[in-house]
């Protein structure tokens, strides 16, 4: 077994009784003594603190960095204003997704936050095509999510109350420079805070001492993002799935589409622009099993109960604690992708009815 | 109460054997969100996968601990799967079975032996 890496908050996780598991090369907390269900509910009702230091933070510096990044992504980076962040994805020549990430305009540079499992490949990809790529290796990253996240974080950094969804600022806290965005991966209002690693435990401890803040593991992180209808890289999106199939059309603005001022010019543009115009051959949809049996990733989907051949599969699924029922997402042909359509999923050899459902499963509460 | 190596408990109730999962197993599973029970009046063989428990983490099976017939199932678990976490060795029994020879229970672990087994 290869050595697992640890985040700057590893000792704190141990102290709080976390169950640690290998995840993307790191030893990460999957749950704390409260348990997945309790942690999920706590985040929805108060404030949950997540260690996401395993994710990659990468600076892209230099004149024309935004134009340069646009050669790798189908989104509008040039039009991203200073102090703002947006969702983006690297595409491959086939139009598939190499990784999805957040990009912020920090004035004199861009900051990318990428998935842990992809970060080495992402950095190599960036360095191959662009200059001014600087991986950030001395910072922790935490997320504070939930309706009381603002109140809690404002006790340490009062200016966060000024931020709106997807704003990104630097703020000073006791001599440490924090990078703070109002964003997250739970469907809740909340923040992501990049902290110099030597100050990370001290800062995190102060948050955890607050009554409304509890530590949350990867287990609840997954059920929270699933209820919010957000994709998990490696499950719901990947190198064989295009942004259009994944229903991420909203991330591709007019300016990068056919007829736009900066049309195409990213890997896989031919296929992606064609799918935008003519539709994709499969679509990511929300799925609501009609029985209480969860349909987990890999569950084959069928148009009719007795059909021999599957029409698609579940890519993420489980129980949604806040919606109180099993929920899934997966891929089906476009003619079956309309909300209300009933299809079938095979669980332990039994065909069970499942309905196409709009996402998110639970309305998001971003502070726009 | 007796325990199996599959973390099930067995309790004699008149001429029936009541079966559930241990508190240790419930704790390891995490929050239970779905339970599928066996059909009534089916003959089962030892080792058959006859129940499914799904937690927030994963699905797992309950095996028939002995040969016999399923004569009662605990429907309360269908509506309230979290009973398994709340009262694993009490209200959250899964099924009752009729077996030919109660002596077959002797081979299973006592509570103390089970505690050693999981420690």
Automatic annotation (TrEMBL), chain A:
Q: Where is the GCVT N-terminal domain?
A: 9-253
- This entry's Enzyme Commission designation comes to 2.1.2.10
Q: Which InterPro entries match?
A: GcvT, GcvT/YgfZ/DmdA, GcvT/YgfZ_C, GcvT_C, GCVT_N, TrmE/GcvT-like
Keywords, ordered alphabetically: Aminotransferase, Methyltransferase, Transferase
Name the family: Belongs to the GcvT family.
Q: Which reaction does it catalyse?
A: N(6)-[(R)-S(8)-aminomethyldihydrolipoyl]-L-lysyl-[protein] + (6S)-5,6,7,8-tetrahydrofolate = N(6)-[(R)-dihydrolipoyl]-L-lysyl-[protein] + (6R)-5,10-methylene-5,6,7,8-tetrahydrofolate + NH4(+)
Q: List the GO terms this entry assigns under cellular component, sorted alphabetically.
A: glycine cleavage complex
Q: Residue ranges of the Aminomethyltransferase C-terminal domain?
A: 282-361
Q: Which residues bind substrate?
A: 192
| Gene Ontology molecular function, alphabetical | aminomethyltransferase activity; methyltransferase activity; transaminase activity
Protein name according to UniProt: aminomethyltransferase
One Pfam entry for this protein is GCV_T_C
Taxonomy, superkingdom: Bacteria
Q: Name the Gene Ontology biological process terms.
A: glycine catabolic process; methylation
Return the SUPFAM superfamilies for the record: Aminomethyltransferase beta-barrel domain, Folate-binding domain
UniProtKB/TrEMBL annotation, chain B:
What biological processes does GO assign it? glycine decarboxylation via glycine cleavage system; protein lipoylation
NCBIfam families this protein is in?
Answer: gcvH, PRK01202.1
Question: CDD domains from the entry?
Answer: GCS_H
* Keyword Zinc set for record: no
Q: Which UniProt keywords apply?
A: Lipoyl
Q: What is this protein called?
A: Glycine cleavage system H protein
Q: Which domain of life is it from?
A: Bacteria
Q: Transferase: is it a keyword of this entry?
A: no
The record's cofactor note says:
Binds 1 lipoyl cofactor covalently.
Q: Name one Pfam family in it.
A: GCV_H
Fetch the Gene3D superfamilies from UniProt.
Answer: 2.40.50.100
Subunit arrangement?
Answer: The glycine cleavage system is composed of four proteins: P, T, L and H.
The family assignment reads: Belongs to the GcvH family.
InterPro entries hit by this protein: Biotin_lipoyl, GCV_H, GCV_H/Fam206, GCV_H_sub, Single_hybrid_motif
UniProt cofactor(s): (R)-lipoate
Ranges of residues in domain Lipoyl-binding: 16-98
**Function text:** The glycine cleavage system catalyzes the degradation of glycine. The H protein shuttles the methylamine group of glycine from the P protein to the T protein.
* SUPFAM superfamilies the record matches: Single hybrid motif
Q: Where is the signal peptide?
A: none
Annotated organism of origin? Pararhodobacter oceanensis
């Amino acid at each position: 077994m290869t050595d697992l890496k640890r985040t700057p908050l590893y000792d704190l996780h141990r102290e709080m009784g976390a169950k640690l598991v290998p995840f993307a090369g790191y030893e990460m907390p999957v749950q704390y003594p409260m348990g997945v269900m309790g942690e999920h509910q706590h985040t929805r009702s108060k404030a949950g603190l997540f260690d996401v230091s395993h994710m990659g933070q990468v600076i892209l510096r230099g004149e024309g960095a935004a134009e340069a990044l646009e050669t790798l992504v189908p989104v509008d980076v040039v039009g991203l204003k200073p102090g703002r962040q947006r969702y983006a994805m690297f595409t491959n020549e086939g139009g598939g997704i190499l990784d999805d990430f957040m990009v912020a305009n920090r004035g004199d540079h861009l900051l990318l936050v990428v998935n842990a499992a992809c970060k080495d490949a992402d950095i190599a990809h960036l360095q191959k095509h662009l200059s001014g790529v600087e991986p950030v290796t001395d910072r922790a990253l935490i997320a504070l999510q939930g309706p009381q996240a603002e109140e809690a974080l404002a006790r340490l950094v009062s200016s966060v109350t000024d931020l709106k969804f997807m704003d990104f600022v630097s703020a000073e806290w006791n001599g440490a420079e924090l990078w703070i965005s109002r964003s997250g991966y739970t469907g809740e209002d909340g923040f992501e805070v990049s902290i110099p690693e030597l100050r990370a435990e001290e800062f995190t401890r102060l948050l955890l001492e607050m009554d409304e803040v509890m530590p949350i593991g990867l287990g609840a992180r997954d059920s929270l993002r699933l209820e919010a209808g957000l994709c998990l890289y490696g499950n719901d999106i990947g190198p064989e799935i295009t942004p259009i199939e994944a229903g991420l059309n909203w991330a591709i603005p007019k300016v990068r589409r056919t007829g736009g001022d900066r049309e195409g010019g990213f890997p896989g543009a031919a296929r992606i622009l064609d799918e935008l115009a003519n539709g994709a051959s499969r679509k990511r949809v929300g799925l609501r099993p009609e029985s209480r049996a969860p349909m987990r990733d890999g569950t084959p989907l069928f148009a009719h109960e007795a059909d021999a051949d599957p029409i698609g599969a579940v890519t993420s699924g489980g129980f949604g604690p806040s919606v109180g029922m099993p929920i899934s997402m997966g891929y089906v042909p476009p003619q079956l992708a309309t909300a209300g359509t009933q299809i079938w999923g095979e669980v332990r050899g039994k065909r069970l009815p499942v309905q196409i459902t709009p996402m998110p499963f639970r309305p998001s509460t971003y502070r726009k | 109460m007796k325990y199996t190596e599959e973390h099930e408990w067995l309790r004699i109730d008149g001429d029936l054997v009541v079966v559930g999962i241990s508190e240790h197993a419930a704790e390891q599973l995490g929050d239970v969100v779905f339970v599928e029970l066996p059909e009534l009046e089916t003959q089962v063989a030892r080792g058959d996968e006859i129940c499914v428990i799904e937690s927030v983490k994963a699905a797992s099976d309950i095996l028939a601990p002995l040969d016999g017939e399923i004569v009662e199932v605990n429907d309360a678990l269908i509506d309230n799967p979290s009973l398994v976490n709340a009262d694993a060795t009490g209200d959250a029994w899964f099924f009752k079975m009729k077996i030919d020879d109660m002596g077959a229970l002797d081979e299973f672990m006592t509570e103390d032996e089970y505690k050693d087994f999981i420690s």
